[in-house]
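Table 4 source record.
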Amino acid sequence: MKGLQKVLMLLGGVFVCGTFINATQVEKKESNIAIEKIEQKLLNDYNVYALPIPEKLNLAGEVVPIENPDIRERMDRELLVNTYWQSNGLLLFKRAHKYFPIIEPILEKHGIPEDFKYLAVIESGLTQALSPARAAGFWQILKNTGREYGLEVNQNVDERYHIEKATEVACKYLKKSKERFGSWTLAAAAYNAGNGGINKQLKRQNVTNYYDLLLGQETGRYVFRIIALKEILSHPEKYGFNMKDEDLYKHIPTYKVKVDSVVTDFSKFAEHFGINYKILKLHNPWLREAHLNNASKKEYYIDIPEKGIYTTVGQ
């Protein structure tokens, strides 16, 4: 009997309890079962759910009239879009951990509600972005606006990319808008559409509140996007985002070096501090060229990372 079983197995079959089963059929059946298990696991592990909309939402303490069907649908859209764009959401959590500690004290100094840090999130994703309209930096400031509020903007130096200085300008602009409209919500909308644009629509439509205005798609979604990002970033687990502290990006400690003269070569300048040109520019994106003209002997403060944080490949 043992000899017969051996011969059958060699021929590609198995004799079990009086039944001849082809080995290929067994493998195929097992493969199908495995595929079914994988498919079932995928269905169980990845499901898309409608989101419960919080009944109490606000921007800078100003209540969102969520009981209004139109407002509810618009809020639902932004919560859904930003919750289910998971890769972008995780990046925002990581960057917020690195940059919010820089932005928050400046907002507080100017009396701007902390909620406005989320405005920077929707403007640039907390990156040094440049828009098609040539608005630049975390706060997406236009060239003329930057100059109007005291930033240096030219080919050599562009302080719209200086996080602290750009945040100062954003605070001044928002405060001016709040004084004009009497509402932080309208001030947020005006950051997108301009003070003149919002004022024109308020008069034209004879209303006094952002939520009563009929606006173009971008400005019409703008405040809802800020509130959605505030809600999601404030309650990660509620919206399905899971991360550990070590997953988040960290602020890199730096010290400031005063420069009040021409710098002919930032590559050599960087070497003097034990870093390379790339690292120098990462920490000082407002330096737009490989040199600093500075004919007027203006004082600049350049951020240099503390020693030992970066290593140069090949050294």
